[in-house]
Design a protein that fits this description.
The chain starts with a helix and ends in a 41-residue tail after the last strand. By secondary structure, the protein is of the alpha+beta class.
Length: 196
């Protein structure tokens, strides 16, 4: 071995690096949004709000897709007024955990328009325990938004924010209107399997 060869560091072969598996985001969005009836809408600078929705894709003749229809107002879910841009947080149907975070545009639908009628046709079958004429109630008292995701996901499998996403519990009014009444000899459920 020559002196020049001894002075050179040993050569190492570069190992091929494995790229993270590619994720079909379009398919993942469809799976997360259509299989779960719940998503979160995060208002910029505000809180995240869980909402039920009706999802439809490009193949749905009832309207442009992919998008989520959301109805809010009296007798429905509470949702603040939505700005033009929000974030959608989609959950995993299996674990219930955060799966995707997407940027989205919102648009309020005006009652009586073709787009509003199409939204009602998509929302009505998804509205559980509905009573009466929901279309008339939605027209008079509620707001329907169409929320359309766009761009690359802000969070996706293999690329999540380090934060937990936990938020402090917001104070709420008490649920019990008054003290429970006193019962002579206790409540019936407490006396089960006893003789009088």
């Amino acid at each position: 071995m020559t002196d020049a060869a001894a002075e050179q560091p040993p050569r190492t072969e570069a190992l091929p690096t494995q790229a993270p598996p590619a994720v079909d985001v379009t398919r993942l969005i469809h799976e997360a949004a259509s299989k779960s009836g719940l998503l979160w809408v995060r208002v910029p600078g505000g809180a995240s709000h869980p909402v039920w929705h009706a999802w439809h894709d490009d193949g749905d003749e009832r309207g442009p897709g992919p998008a989520a229809y959301v109805v809010s107002g009296p007798g429905e879910q509470h949702l603040p007024w939505l700005p033009d841009e929000v974030e959608l947080i989609l959950r995993s149907k299996d674990t219930g955990g955060r799966l995707l975070t997407l940027q989205a545009t919102t648009r309020r639908l005006e009652p009586g328009t073709d787009a509003w009628d199409a939204a009602v046709e998509v929302l009505r079958p998804e509205r559980l325990n509905a009573t009466g004429d929901v279309a008339a109630r939605w027209r008079d008292d509620n707001t329907i938004h169409v929320i359309t995701p766009h761009g690359r996901p802000l969070e996706a499998p293999g690329r999540y924010d380090d934060g937990s996403g936990a938020a402090p519990v917001r104070p709420a009014a008490p649920a019990t209107a008054r003290w429970r009444p006193w019962h002579w000899r206790g409540r019936a459920g407490a006396r089960r399997n006893t003789t009088p």
